[in-house]
Design goal:
This protein starts with 26 loop residues before the first strand and ends with a helix. It folds into 2 domains: 27-160 and 297-409, Rossmann fold (3-Layer(aba) Sandwich), CATH 3.40.50.1820; 165-290, no CATH class. The protein is globular. It has a 9-stranded mixed sheet with strand order 1-2-3-5-4-6-7-8-9, sandwiched between helices. Helix 13 (329-346) links the parallel strand 8 and strand 9. Helix 3 (97-119) packs across helix 4 and helix 7 runs antiparallel to helix 10. It has helices at residues 68-71, 73-81, 97-119, 131-142, 161-164, 168-180, 197-212, 219-229, 246-265, 269-279, 281-290, 300-310, 329-346, 372-382, 384-391, 394-409, and strands spanning 27-28, 35-37, 40-43, 55-59, 85-88, 124-129, 150-154, 315-321, 353-359. The chain is of the alpha/beta class.
Length: 412
């Protein structure tokens, strides 16, 4: 999908307008009132709240961005409590930021018609943490069909891979190339599974998902694993299809049912599934390095140039944490100030506001807080101040309060 084709022109994301396309059915997740819809996680304000003040489109940081409804659950649920509609789009980390942005926009595009029909014209505010902040900046700078009413960028950073990953060239690049092995179309080779560890990782993750759901692997999956794991020299000895007798399947499933029930009653099944979502990114990154990826696309110099020339959000909040060694908020603030000058030349009557604030905390502060229901229970038992200190969400609360202050300042 090209930049020009990413978002159809009949959807104005600065303020959602009702387009004519339809949306499919949503499915409730097991995490609170979150819903999964079209590859996004949706959280609506409480039923007794007035119409949403704005839609917050949220992107999380590297790796944890694959499960934003869990990793950032506390701050997003606090924002929903204050009357904001939340759409958190998960993404898989990649060296190609443009492709990642394209996928994010595509997912948001699919949920937007449903929300526009339900809530009408709602201003869209992009909020991102760490890598998610970078992606929000790229979306606002390089994708002209996705304007935003405002952006809040938390712990912005855009370091080249050699700085982000120490010893990348010396250790990780050759290691990942070696690990990736022979990634042929069917995954088989003379050495079988030993030559393609990343394919083995993917099979292991799939088996993990099946087990977490209390199921047994399908005959097709078992057949694929057997074919992959068998060296070509003895491949003829492997049956074309592995078939588990129905009676044996039923017996094994009944044996697993008590364990699955305990897991579900304890409420840990969704968390295990989210952990698998995060781990799923590892073999993908290994394969990208094996295919020659050595830096992010676009590199930092190109990102800075794009921000200076094309950043279009009228209001921007940069949140920086005092003990965050990765943060580059001050650097990007300089380039956004230059973009403000460029935009005023094009639209002299439009005001552009850029604010930067420094809060207590460090890089992981926005995703350290426990789920809101757990925090509320802890406050009931321990008291509010003790719970916040013990569970380390004082700084997450400060982040929410700063976002609310800024949003209300902009009448959102």
């Amino acid at each position: 999908m090209s930049t020009e084709e990413s978002v159809p022109s009949d959807i104005n994301y600065d303020s959602l307008q009702t387009p004519s396309s339809s949306a499919s059915q949503s499915t409730k997740s097991k995490l609170g009132e979150w819903e999964e819809m079209h590859g996004n996680y949706l959280l609506k304000p409480p039923p007794n709240a007035p119409e949403p003040r704005a839609l917050i489109h949220f992107l999380g940081g590297a790796f944890v961005g694959a499960a934003p409804d869990l990793s950032y659950r506390y701050i997003l649920e606090k924002l929903a409590e204050r009357g904001f509609l939340i759409v958190a789009t998960p993404y898989k980390l990649s060296f190609d930021y443009i492709e990642t942005c394209d996928d994010i926009i595509g997912r948001f595009e699919r949920i937007a018609p449903h929300l526009a029909r339900q809530f009408g014209a709602v201003p869209v505010v992009g909020v991102g943490h760490s890598c998610g902040a970078l992606l929000q900046l790229l979306i606002t700078s390089l994708f002209p069909d996705t304007p935003r009413a405002a952006n809040a960028l938390l712990s912005y950073n855009n370091k080249p891979v050699k700085e982000a990953v120490p010893l990348f060239e010396e250790v990780f690049s050759p290691l990942f190339t070696s690990i990736s092995g022979d990634r042929s179309a069917n995954g088989t080779s003379a050495l079988g599974a030993l030559s393609s560890p990343t394919v083995a990782m993917n099979f292991a993750l799939e088996l993990g998902r099946v087990a977490v759901r209390g199921n047994l692997p399908s005959d097709q999956l078992l057949s694929d694993i057997a074919k992959f794991a068998t060296p070509q020299s003895i491949n003829s000895l492997t049956p074309d299809k592995v078939v588990v007798p129905t009676a044996l399947r039923d017996t094994l499933k009944k044996t697993l049912e008590p364990l699955t029930k305990i897991q579900d009653e304890a409420g840990i099944t969704p968390y295990i599934e989210k952990a698998l979502d995060v781990l799923e990114q590892v073999p993908l990154l290994i394969d990208e390095v094996a295919d020659g990826a050595r830096d992010f696309n676009p590199p930092p110099s190109s990102v800075q140039a794009a921000a200076r020339r094309g950043y279009r959000a009228r209001r921007t909040l940069l949140i920086q944490y005092k003990d965050d060694g990765l943060d580059e908020s001050e650097l990007i603030e300089k380039y956004l100030d230059e973009s403000k000058t460029v935009m005023r030349m094009k639209r002299p009557m439009v005001d552009f506001d850029i604010q930067r604030t420094v809060l207590d905390g460090f890089h992981a502060t926005p995703c350290l807080a426990p789920p809101l229901d757990l925090a509320n229970k802890a406050e009931d038992i321990l008291g509010e101040e003790t719970a916040r200190d013990s569970l380390l969400y004082n700084n997450a609360d400060a982040t929410v309060n700063e976002l609310i202050r800024w949003l209300e300042q902009g009448q959102l």
